[in-house]
Design brief:
Blueprint lengths: L6 E5 L5 H14 L4 E6 L4 E8 L2 E9 L1 E4 L4 E4 L1
Parallel strand pairs: 1-2
Antiparallel strand pairs: 2-3, 3-4, 5-6
């Protein structure tokens, strides 16, 4: 395989959430991962980021649902 994946889904843990949402997100952005989702199970929040002109834009934040046209699915938790 060559290149970056189109999608990374991260399950946040209380101990590493800050690292995941800052440092790791920056790495994904730098290497061109098109979409990054961060799922915070404890707060039931899902943060969606999409790459626009080489920078992540927070597309939306949802509570207890992941809906993806890319994966053609909806997950409620």
């Amino acid at each position: 395989m060559h290149g970056a994946p189109d999608l990374v889904i991260e399950i946040l843990s209380p101990r590493t959430a800050k690292y995941d949402l800052e440092d790791k997100k920056d790495v994904y952005e730098r290497y061109g991962v098109k979409k990054y989702w961060a799922v915070d199970h404890s707060s039931k929040q899902v943060y969606f980021f999409k790459l626009v002109k080489d920078e992540y834009v927070e597309a939306e934040t949802k509570n207890a649902v992941i809906k993806s046209s890319l994966l053609k699915t909806e997950i409620k938790f």
